[in-house]
Amino acid sequence: MTIRTIIVDDEKLAIQGMQHRLEKFDDIEIIATCHNGRDAIRRIKTLKPDLVFLDIQMPGFDGFSVVEGIMDIEPPLFVFATAYSEHAIRAFEAQAIDYLMKPIEEDRLADTLERVRLRLADKKIGEEAEKLRNVLKTIDPSAANRIDEASEDSMSARYEKLINVKDRGQIFRVDVDTIERIDAAGDYMCIHTADNSLILRETMKDLEKRLDPRVFKRVHRSAIVNLDQVREVKPHTNGECFLILESGAQVKVSRSYRDVVARFI
């Protein structure tokens, strides 16, 4: 699969350097380069790339402004590239697939592209499955319903029902359904149930793979919530809001994850 790619940077040498690095990857097709944010927005909307390498520090429209400027279309995958590490947190809040520090190391770039391939492959599988369901709904609605039910059962079976947590010298077996929220602190996760809080040494990325994504959703860069535990949505400023859980706990939903709230509206 060819990955149609746009490079955005206000420095000509930086674009040339990225082009040179990407030449080593046969599946990367550079379809455009842009030297400013306004041109990037126009090209992204017109060309609909799979991937955009996006500099953050640009005069006028910076990288974050570009992301905001294409929110009216299905966005491509974004990889931010910059010389300033202080932008890392905001980059991930903007749902970038990765964040590269300049000068970009070849091994680090290769890892990023592997993440891109996996994400695009997952998206492709989902799109093909949806096409098949739509055809079946026209030809044989009952068959489409059976496939949907089988898909639901299969997805449920993939995720864990119990999680073993070693904390304070003991091993706790936590029923996943009782988890109301999970907070991240580096490589440690704080798992909250209605009557207990336990510390698990694991990254959020790995823990997410173990939980059913239809129930457990990231609502902030450092917080996951069990949506079945939500009893109220309280609007806040700047497009943010708070989820009020059954226990009374409040969890802030950042703007980058506001689509999660759509389930309750």
What would your notes on this structure say?
With about 260 residues, the chain is α/β, with parallel strands linked by helices. The protein contains seven helices and 15 strands. The chain has a five-stranded parallel sheet, with helices on both faces. It has a five-stranded antiparallel sheet with strand order 10-9-8-12-11, with no helix packed on it. A three-stranded antiparallel sheet has the order 13-14-15, with no helix packed on it. Helix 5 (about 105-140) runs antiparallel to helix 6. The protein is globular and about 55 Å long.
**What value does the average pLDDT take?**
82
Backbone shape: globular
Helix segment tally: 7
- Main β-sheet: number of strands, strand sense, barrel status? 5 strands, parallel
Distance between the termini: 38 Å
Fraction of helical residues: 25-40%
Count of strand segments: 15
**Computed Rg:** 21 Å
Helix-strand makeup class: alpha/beta
Strand portion: 25-35%
Q: Write out the strand line-up for the largest beta sheet, numbering strands in chain order.
A: 2-1-3-4-5
- Order of helix and strand elements from N to C terminus: EHEHEHEHEHHEEEEEHEEEEE
Low-confidence stretches: none
Question: What order do the helices and strands come in, and which of them pair?
Answer:
Blueprint (H helix, E strand, L loop, with lengths): L2 E6 L3 H11 L5 E7 L2 H11 L3 E5 L7 H7 L7 E6 L5 H6 L4 E4 L4 H34 L1 H18 L3 E6 L2 E6 L3 E7 L2 E6 L3 E5 L2 H7 L5 E5 L2 E4 L3 E6 L5 E5 L4 E4 L12
Parallel strand pairs: 1-2, 1-3, 3-4, 4-5
Antiparallel strand pairs: 6-7, 8-9, 8-12, 9-10, 11-12, 13-14, 14-15
